[in-house]
TrEMBL record:
Protein name per the record: GDP-mannose-dependent alpha-mannosyltransferase
Every Glycosyltransferase subfamily 4-like N-terminal domain range: 14-178
CDD domains xrefs: GT4-like
Pfam families: Glyco_transf_4 (PF13439), Glycos_transf_1 (PF00534)
Region (Disordered): 369-394
GO molecular function (one): hexosyltransferase activity
Record-annotated Glycosyl transferase family domain positions: 189-341
Keywords recorded for this protein, A-Z: Glycosyltransferase, Transferase
GO BP, sorted A to Z: carbohydrate derivative biosynthetic process
Length: 394
């Protein structure tokens, strides 16, 4: 099979979209498929033996390390040259919209992978009036896709409520070797918490959309040491808010494996996660999780079993949940013992096999029927009735 992946981001940017695309490319390479990637910015020329085509991009003024792609003739010409059997749209927004148009012109089915909560992102940056426009744009893209894959049950329900058709659930895998309790380091723990404190850790981007300012709610909890891993535009202000925390900066590879496994409690502050890979990696490392009861964590965190959930709009609820686990060693140990087993079935191998089956299914379906609106005006999108969805989808 020949798969063209059009992604809103790729290396050297490290985020959930990039991580998923890399794992998919590795799986396609291991199983004898052909692939290529079109992505914004200055990406490497190849990955897993497949070519990468770069398109124009600009930096967000409030988030200089984040590049946003621009429409480009490179997308159409790259797909024409590659002649894919299926087009994979990774978190389609701007570059993905051009990829959708190119796929339709080539008569090739497109599988759109929904991954980023753009509405929640916009709200966190003060653009609260943009909800309607964003959903209209997302419908414009996704109603032309042969299938949209949602990462979690909460996201799937939200997409369905906003008129996105032909939905199926496709989660995210986790590397069970890289994220493993065996990487726990007592020497590293002693470095973080020399007085034997309970190590409470956060891993992720330090940005407003992750609500990392809420970590300040934990600053004065007795008997804990807060450890922050990651970087981003909110790093400087967060250092001022929690001056006694340990800031590790961006860490990857073996360093990240050891740091994460050495936490006693993992806390996640975001409330707009469509999946939340960081939560899943913490669970794989045997660390109980405290997360907001919203989005992807609802599928991952089982309260009282492998962690605790707090109301998404309650910073005090987050503080209370962390304080409870920090003071109750028996509860931590019980939840830690359950954490890894709760995600053992979520391997990248099994998830990528599911993805290939989605490719095969849309290729077998009547693509012409599913893209009959491709020549309508972009905003004149007809929202299909749910009863029109293929069997097995929403």
């Amino acid at each position: 099979m020949r798969v063209a992946i059009v992604s809103e981001s790729f290396l050297p940017q490290v985020n959930g979209v990039t991580n998923s695309v890399c794992r998919v490319l590795e799986h396609l390479a291991d199983h004898g498929h052909e692939a290529m990637v079109v992505a914004p910015g200055r990406s490497p020329s190849s990955y897993a033996g497949f070519p990468i085509r770069s398109t124009a991009a600009f930096r967000l003024p409030f988030y200089r390390s984040f590049r946003v792609g621009l429409p480009s003739r490179t997308i159409m010409s790259s797909l024409e040259e590659f002649r894919p059997d299926v087009v994979h749209l990774a978190s389609p927004t701007v570059v993905g919209a051009s990829g959708m148009t190119a796929a339709a012109r080539l008569g090739v089915p497109a599988v759109a992978v929904f991954q980023t909560d753009l509405v929640g992102f916009a709200r966190q940056y003060g653009m609260r009036g943009a909800d309607s426009a964003i959903w209209s744009w997302l419908r414009h893209i996704h109603t032309r896709a042969a299938r949209t894959l949602a990462p979690s049950s909460a996201t799937m329900a939200e997409l369905n409520a906003h008129g996105i058709p032909r939905l199926s659930l496709w989660g995210r895998g986790v590397d069970l070797e890289r994220f493993n309790p065996a990487h726990r380091s007592e020497s590293l723990r002693a470095e973080f918490a020399p007085n034997g404190e309970v190590v409470v850790g956060y891993v992720g981007r330090l940005a407003a959309d992750k609500r990392v300012h809420l970590l300040a709610e934990l600053a004065d909890l007795p008997g804990i040491k807060l450890v922050v891993v990651g970087d981003g535009p909110a790093a400087r202000s967060l250092r001022r808010r929690v001056p006694d925390a340990v800031f590790c900066g961006l860490r990857t590879g073996t360093e990240l494996s050891q740091i994460l496994a050495s936490f006693d409690v993992f806390v996640h502050t975001g409330a707009n996660e469509t999946y939340c890979q960081a939560v899943q990696e913490a669970l794989a490392a045997g660390v109980p999780v405290v997360a907001a009861a919203a989005g992807g964590p609802l599928d991952l965190v089982q309260p009282e079993h492998n962690g605790l959930l707090y109301p998404a709009d309650s910073p005090g609820g987050m503080r209370e949940a962390v304080a409870r686990l920090a003071s109750d060693g028996q509860a931590r140990a019980r939840m830690s013992g359950n954490a890894r087993s709760s995600v053992l079935h979520r391997t990248w191998s099994s998830l990528c096999e599911q993805l290939v089956r989605h490719y095969e299914t849309v290729l077998a379906e009547d693509f012409q029927a599913s893209t009959q609106q491709s020549h309508e005006e972009p905003w004149a999108v007809r929202i299909p009735d749910p009863s029109e969805a293929p069997a097995g989808t929403v």
